[in-house]
Amino acid sequence: MKRNKILRIIFLICIIILISLVAFAGIFVAYQNTTKNLVKEYSLGRDLVGSRRIQLDVSTQTNEVKYDKDGNVIASTDSETEVANTVSEPVNKEEDKTLENYQKTAKILEERLKELSVEDYTLRLNTENGMVMIELPENADKTDSVVSALSQTGKFEIVDSTTKEVLLDNTDIEKVEADIGQTSYGYVAYIAIQFNKEGTEKFRNITNTYKTIENTTSNTTTEETTEEAEEQKEISLQLDGETIMTDSFEEEISTGYLQLTVGSSTSTSNSEELNTYYKSAQTEAALLNSDALPLTYTVAQNKYVKSDITLETLQIALYIALGVLAIGIVYLIIRYHMKGLLVAISLIGYIALLLLTIRYTNVTISIIGLVGIVVSVMINYIFILQLLKKTEEIENVKLAYTEVMKSFLKVMLPIIIIAIVFAFSTHLAIFSFGMVMFWGIVLDWIYNLVVTRTFLLDAKKE
Prior knowledge:
By secondary structure, the protein is an alpha+beta fold. Helices cover 47% and strands 23% of the residues. It has a 4-stranded antiparallel beta sheet with strand order 7-8-4-18. A 4-stranded antiparallel beta sheet has the order 10-9-15-16, with helices on one face. The chain has a 3-stranded antiparallel beta sheet with strand order 11-12-17.
């Protein structure tokens, strides 16, 4: 073989080794006195990692409401007004416990799940009492945040801190995003609220009405007097009735944009503390991007349900698959020598690239999805085996590749159609299989054209 062909083969082998190391081992860096894998984790379905079962019940709690002698509600922060009467009132009125509100609740909860990128879930609504049962995959880094977002009412309000008049609420919000920014003293996790057209005008008026007032003094020739300072008006930003902050504004804001800091850190942008704040910001963003729940709910059940598939079962299946793969690779090397070795290396690179593609296209892997991976690898193996046989017959790699690809497409056409149809399914198991097969077939065509075909061309005897 010519020198340039050898160099091309070595280059491709090095690329495959690199891809394989990333896919099978990962990229680890020092992080918080330990190590962290920079490669994206697999998204696993409930049938593999177990699930979290959450039951939300319509709250039966009551609140103590205090009234003055004129029948006006006394704010919880008001300690001066004399209490004339105290009444226990339910957080959910009986007239609000309707089928319409139950169904609206279920719809809002599904919107929040989508906002938090939860695809594999089931949501069941009891139309008689409004109880909602949700099952979603167990994820140590995410599930608790999701549960928090589901259980909160999500009622956002900007109110006058004195009169408690509602100045702006959920209906005035267009979009909320969570992000991390850098400041002179470190990093901050925040939510950015963009109000809609009506909300933007309301917010502009609020920033003008509740401006920060600077106290001034004036001197006279006869005596020094202090002008009576104008009373400072402030707003309170509330979520589910709890005050997040009380403030005024230094200048008019006409853009309809409000940034709220969730937490800050003086450490690096990858610190655990900052990541915790960012997750909280994502939860708040998911809440505000959906409507407030029409009813208040409480978490009646929050438990982990184990998967029927044990780790030992998966390990046995993996060992069997690796054993079959090893036998197939040994056969290729014994039967086709150097060409067989190069094609075997190409096969390993295909598997590594397929696994990385599944990770970074956010395909949720179910048990049937694992079957899809195995089937994709088998299809690729059969293709390269047929290509090797055809290459021996006609000793023209380009022509052999074209003929094998044509015959292969005829056989694969039904599988390609099924994969595409399954990829649009709303059932996770079917969707997982369809997406894995889709990417497997796409990579099979592109990868073998670029890599396997090049190996065989450069490995030809001169």
